[in-house]
Amino acid sequence: MMEIRTPKTHKAKRVLEKRAPKLVENGKKTLILHGTKTSATLSSVLMELYRLKKGGAIKYSRRNENIRPFESGGETSLEFFSQKTDCSIFAYGSHTKKRPDNLVLGRMYDHHVYDLIEVGIENFKSLLSFSYDKKIAPHEGSKPFICFTGEGFENVPELKQLREVLTDLFRGEVVDNLNLTGLDRAYICSAVSPTKVFLTHCAIKLKKSGTIVPRIELVEVGPSMDLVIRRNRLPNEGLRKEAMKSSKDKPKKKVKNVDQDDVLGKRGRIFIPEQEVGKTPLPDKSKGVKRERREGKLKKKNKEAGSASKKHKESE
Amino acid sequence: MDMDMETDQIYQIDVGNLLAFNPNHRFSSAPSSREELVKECVTEGTKLVQAIADTLFNLPSTETNDGPLVQLPPPTTKLPREKHLPRPKPPTKWEEFALKKGIQKRKKDKIVYDETTDKFKRRHGYDRVNDDNDIPIIEAKASDEPGEDPFAKRLDDKKKRVGKQEKNRLENLKTAAKAGALPSHVQLAVTGLPISGTKTQPKKIGKEALGDVAGLAATSTASGGKFDKKLPGEKPPKKQGKHHKVIHR
């Protein structure tokens, strides 16, 4: 037997609609979590990643025993968490003797693991250890510049994948309009060697240059770290094709009451309903009151008014 | 201008994502210390950010109270989607039928003239036209069965119609679910009730539980099952003997 289940509240309905597949998607959310053991370095890496991504990330603080992204069957609970939190990028930290300070970055497609890349963290410098003028500190949720340098990002397949994952992780939501004064952060990734990437986070100072384009100065605000490539898993070719599909037709919103005039340009029409002062709703005509009761109330009132006038006459 | 052309060729810039990539950078000499490496990376990064800013700040902008607003071009870097593209909803049984017969949808007025009361009334809902509940007397017909309550029958028929519609709705949603195009706010849940026409599967009773029952039955006689007829293969009850200790003096 099947049963149709629909949300009982409008809020629940809105939440479900937000999660549904869409033509133009919302930004990918990031899930940050760790395994049974983490080192001090790694836990601060995860914490600071969460701070950088605040507003678009969810951090889990409990230990997770069953997560082993690279092993078969080890991704079940990860996929469950992705479903639960509606996150499609994850950063999983673990610390073992074989792979110390291990960070697994991965993406999800339809709540199933899409691709994975494992990096070791070295030379980590926390954002607390940087000293700079706090006025230039980047604001939460601002759109970042992302820079990649080094030929490794084009030639080495692992680095190429890392570039894509980092772009997806940092870019945030795709926007149409951008306020130029809100630009205040940049991520810089450079391939130092075929297996090592230097990553840092900088604040931007816009200096006057005499032209429209300001001169840009970068100030390191941290965190900064080296990412050493370990294991990786590329997406399945079929899955990749499926995930890369994009619709050519943008969702068309019918524009009403706006037309283009050759001479006058864009013209709009405005409709103002007739203002009926005599019929302005009285307090007891509120929507909440049941129609039946309201009508009954009115009748009662009329009756009372009638009888009162009669009485009045009698007393006279 | 020549410089601009050069940088464009060197760098790959995606303004939609504020992304720049310099595939040709190479460290001139292996950086001796960490500071040197960081310095070189940051200067290289500054160049790239400047390159993005060059195109970004030259885009047509509109002034607002909070600052200049520019319209970003769509991103050129292709990244995988988060979820599949929304799938088209399959037509319902009625929609299929209507298409075959050429029945077209038409708008109906919300308010209809009611002849009996000489008023305009709603088509549906409270205080509607031709409401069955407004009829206090139903005339008897020759075909009426004696002993049947016409009012109850009317109510029953209505319930049946609603039930049928609900069944149709479920069927249509099932086909939509198969096509992966279930509306986002609807879930189809399997309930515990069996599918009509099939037998409910009896719960399996384990060996242990069965033995316990046999033992219990035995102890319920005064003699503790001592004189009961044993079935072939039946084992003696588990808990034998006295339950209470009586102290004799």
UniProtKB/TrEMBL annotation, chain A:
Xref: SMART domains: Brix (SM00879)
Domain of life: Eukaryota
Region (Disordered): 238-316
Subcellular location: Nucleus, Nucleolus
All residue ranges annotated as the Brix domain in the record: 28-238
Skewed-composition ranges (Basic and acidic residues): 238-249, 256-265, 282-295
Key words of the record: Nucleus
Keyword Amino-acid biosynthesis in annotation: no
Entry similarity comment: Belongs to the RPF2 family.
Name of the protein this chain belongs to: Ribosome production factor 2 homolog
Species annotation: Brassica cretica (Mustard)
UniProtKB/TrEMBL annotation, chain B:
Biased composition (Basic and acidic residues): 150-167, 226-237
Function summary: Involved in ribosomal large subunit assembly.
Record's compositionally biased regions (Basic residues): 238-249
Localization in the cell: Nucleus
Matching InterPro entries: Ribosom_reg
Ranges for region Disordered: 59-91, 143-167, 219-249
Family listed: Belongs to the RRS1 family.
This protein's name: Ribosome biogenesis regulatory protein
Record keywords: Nucleus, Ribosome biogenesis
Main location: nucleus
Keyword Nucleus attributed: yes
